[in-house]
Amino acid sequence: MIKLGVNVDHVATLRQARMTNEPDPVLAAGLADLGGADIVTVHLREDVRHIQVRDVDLLRKMVFSKLNLEMATSQEIICTALKIKPEQVTLVPEKRQEITTEGGLSVTTQRGSLVEVVKKFNDEGIQVSLFIDPDKDQIAASKEVGAQSVELHTGKYANAWGEKQCNELLEELVEGVRVARSLGLGVNAGHGLTYKNTGTVVERLDIEEIHIGHSIISRSLFVGLKEAVWEMKELIHKHYLIKQLSEH
User: What angle do CA 33, 222, 225 make, to 5 degrees?
Assistant: First the structure.
């Protein structure tokens, strides 16, 4: 069964807009747990614009589900992650001026430095996933630097206009999964996924984890976070069952 990772960054964004102590992303993570989340995902940025070190520290101690820490490879963030020891880190590219992560990590141009970073985490028993575009060279490089898994960037597919472009980008993801699997990598997916487009991803991609944030948090404003997570879990289960039936 595909595991659901719920990103609670946007709860922290709302809190930081007023520089107060609410809403608390740690409480949000607890409600996501109760709604059936398998993983809690947070992005600790260098500029700590939303998630704070305090949040990650408390999440590590309090959530029942796996903690997945998205992060860039800055020395300060690496030191923080090694101290807190989440079950998994997902290395992502990061630019100060971006609203959200705009694309995948260029593993091919950072092989040397990434080998060292990945080894530091692996030596501490922390799994490493690399957030990359579904490109065979990036996938191969991810294997070379020692990552256990890759998270394929689904943003282009999620933002596609028209059936033709959508199908073309979906096929790129399908091929990316195939290549990663052939190399023995675990495969996850995420970015820009919603209640409308996640079903197709579940049916077409042979993945282990799917990470969703903005759409679930947006839905939670109207139905509550526990219910919003439960609805996404039900959607994933439904389309996973469709996939299983179609394969037999």
Answer: 5
